[in-house]
Design a protein that fits this description.
This protein is an alpha/beta fold and 328 residues long. The chain folds into three domains: 118 residues, NadA-like (Rossmann fold), CATH 3.40.50; 84 residues, Rossmann fold (3-Layer(aba) Sandwich); 87 residues, Rossmann fold. The chain has 15 helices and twelve strands. The protein has a four-stranded parallel beta sheet with strand order 2-1-3-4, with helices on both faces. Strands 6-5-7-8 form a four-stranded parallel beta sheet. Strands 10-9-11-12 form a four-stranded parallel beta sheet, sandwiched between helices. Bound molecules: 1,3-dihydroxyacetonephosphate and iron/sulfur cluster. The site of iron/sulfur cluster (SF4) has 12 residues, from helix 9. It comes from Candidatus Hydrogenisulfobacillus filiaventi. One of its GO terms (biological process) is 'de novo' NAD+ biosynthetic process from L-aspartate. This is Quinolinate synthase. Its cofactor is [4Fe-4S] cluster. Keywords: 4Fe-4S, Cytoplasm, Iron, Iron-sulfur, Metal-binding, Pyridine nucleotide biosynthesis, Transferase.
Length: 328
């Protein structure tokens, strides 16, 4: 099927899908796709999920090769957790503005200002930043990770300002310092845009990713106007399945709408901002997945000294919070 449209796959697409399936068997490969990937990429994947779920799938898999259909830091994470597997990314240029918002040098300088602090890095960071951190977290378990830390120790949380501010509010922790980085896609989902969409759809529920520029305003909306939930992308999928509401305004990258609509045919999902498209996630195509499997490229391998230091914070991330939680 051409899954963006629901129409049968074109001859070219069907041929690519058949080639990918064959190569996957030959290479003993597992294809993992993030919830923001293009529809056909999500549909060819063996598993789709949020950043935490992808890390867990990678860790549990017995496949020899992992094809990470996502952005570079996700492939690095898989490589750190699974050093014995070959981790491939179909396009190594698939980066992340948020991961670029904090360099290892910047983190070192920040740590020097707060020598007693515990460092919590969002998974959207380079392997080198993870190697300087005590804990990693994703949007699905950021609150749980911070709650696991001694309340008397200061916490340095980076690089996402909106997520960090949300975690500070929910935990009520006065000693949490937040780095001023942002994802350009989520930061552009402004409060005004979200409120306009909510006003156009009375009776809808509002699903907000905590990286969004509208998170604070969403939580301040009166419940009689809209019920707002702050969730990771897998959290939104679970919530939408279980809620009795039939209309949802969705504040996150548009790729998530593919699964939301496919899994909930009787419900309507409306973007809070039509322009919320991550150009990096859309760089992965069926053709590039076929090429990755055929030519065994592009392998992502984290240098051993960095890998060894980044492993503990990532293992802590994967271990904290049950996978079926609704909200963060
Ligand atoms: P999650 O899918 O983990 O919520 O992450 C969102 C994101 O922006 C990944 O880059
Ligand atoms: Fe990075 Fe934002 Fe794209 Fe996620 S949506 S990969 S945080 S740029």
């Amino acid at each position: 099927m051409a899954l963006e449209t629901g129409l049968p796959a074109t001859g070219e697409e069907a041929r690519l899908i058949a080639e990918i399936q064959e190569l996957k068997r030959e290479r003993d490969a597992l294809i993992l796709a993030h919830n923001y990937e293009l529809g056909p990429v999500q549909d060819i994947a063996d598993a789709t999920g949020d950043s935490l779920a992808l890390a867990r799938y990678a860790q549990k898999s017995s496949a020899r090769t992992l094809v990470m259909c996502g952005v570079y830091f996700m492939a690095e994470t898989a490589s750190i957790l699974c050093p014995d597997k070959t981790v491939l990314i179909p396009d190594p240029e698939a980066g992340c503005t948020l991961a670029d918002a904090m360099t290892p040098e910047q983190l070192l300088a920040w740590k020097a200002e707060y020598p007693d602090a515990v460092v919590v890095s969002y998974v959207n960071t380079s392997a080198a930043v993870k190697a300087l951190s005590d804990y990693c977290c994703t949007s699905a378990n950021a609150v749980d990770v911070v709650r696991a830390i001694d309340p008397d120790r200061p916490v340095l949380f980076g690089p996402d300002f909106f997520l960090g501010s949300y975690v500070a509010r929910v935990t009520g922790r006065p000693n949490l310092h937040v780095w001023p980085g942002e994802c350009h896609v989520h930061a552009a989902i402004l409060p005004e845009k979200m409120e306009e969409e909510v006003a156009r759809n009375p009776g809808s529920e509002l699903l907000v990713h905590p990286e969004c520029g509208c998170t604070t305003r969403a939580l301040a909306l009166p419940p009689r106007k809209v019920a707002a939930r702050v969730l990771s992308t897998d959290g939104m999928l679970r919530y939408a399945r279980e809620s009795s509401a039939t209309t949802f305004v969705v504040a996150t990258e548009l790729g998530l709408l593919h699964r939301l609509r496919k899994e909930n045919p009787g419900k309507a999902f409306l973007p809070a901002h039509e322009g919320a498209v991550c150009p990096f996630m859309k760089m992965i195509t069926l053709e590039k997945i076929r090429d990755a499997l055929r030519d065994n490229r592009y392998e992502v391998r984290v240098p051993d000294d960095i890998r060894q230091r980044a492993l503990l914070p990532l293992e802590r991330m994967v271990a904290i919070s049950p996978p079926q939680r609704h909200d963060i």
